[in-house]
Amino acid sequence: KAGVTQTPRYLIKTRGQQVTLSCSPISGHRSVSWYQQTPGQGLQFLFEYFSETQRNKGNFPGRFSGRQFSNSRSEMNVSTLELGDSALYLCASSLASGYSYEQYFGPGTRLTVT
Amino acid sequence: DQQVKQNSPSLSVQEGRISILNCDYTNSMFDYFLWYKKYPAEGPTFLISISSIKDKNEDGRFTVFLNKSAKHLSLHIVPSQPGDSAVYFCAASPNTGKLIFGQGTTLQVKP
Lengths: 114, 111
Known about the structure:
The structure holds two protein chains of two kinds.
Chain A: E1 5-7, E2 10-13, E3 19-24, E4 31-38, E5 42-50, E6 53-57, E7 64-68, E8 74-78, E9 87-94, E10 104-105, E11 109-113
Parallel strand pairs in A: 2-11
Antiparallel strand pairs in A: 1-3, 3-8, 4-5, 4-9, 5-6, 7-8, 9-10, 9-11
Chain B: E1 4-5, E2 10-14, E3 19-25, E4 32-38, E5 45-51, E6 56-59, E7 62-67, E8 72-77, E9 86-93, E10 100-101, E11 105-110
Parallel strand pairs in B: 2-11
Antiparallel strand pairs in B: 1-3, 3-8, 4-5, 4-9, 6-7, 7-8, 9-10, 9-11
C-alpha cells in the first residue's frame, strides 16, 4: 500500500506571496492532519480534516487554511507569506476509526520564504 | 505551555544495550500516546502506541510504558542498534486527530 505523498517536496517563495501544498493520504484513510516543524517550535499541529470537514484546529493565524476533497486528498494554503513561515510542512493520514489514533506521515514539503 | 515534555535533548548508548527515552505530560485529558522516529528532512515514522487503559505495550525490540499517576511514559529499545540513531518524538492525543508532540530526543547508538 502506498504511503502518504506530498507535493511539492521543496518550494521557495517571496514574502507576501501565497502557497498551496498538496497531500494524498494512504488509501482508505479518511483523516488528514497538517503539522509545521521549525527548529524553534518543534512539531506543531495546524488542523485536521475528516470527511471534508475541519474537525480540529491549532493555534495558527487565519492565513493558514486547508480543505479536503471527497477522495480524502487535502490541500493547505498559506496566504501573505512571512519569513517565519519557513518550515517543513508535514501531512499525516489516519484511519480515524475505533480507538486508534496512529497517524502516518508523508515526507513533508520544505518551504523557504525569502 | 509545553504539555508534552522530553527533558533529555540527547542520549548516547552502546550497541546492544538498552535505550530508554522518557516523556512527561501535564494534561490528564490525554488518553493515547505515540512514539515516532525521525530522520532529518523526512517525515516522522510511527513506532508504537499505547492507550491510557494499558500500562505496557510491546512490539519487537520496542516497549512503551505508561505511568498515568506520574503522567510519564517511556520507550525502551532492546537491544539498541546503530540504525536506531535518530530523533525520537513522543506525542499525545486527547482522543482526537490532534497530536501534541514533545521537543524530541536525539538518540545515538555507538557501534
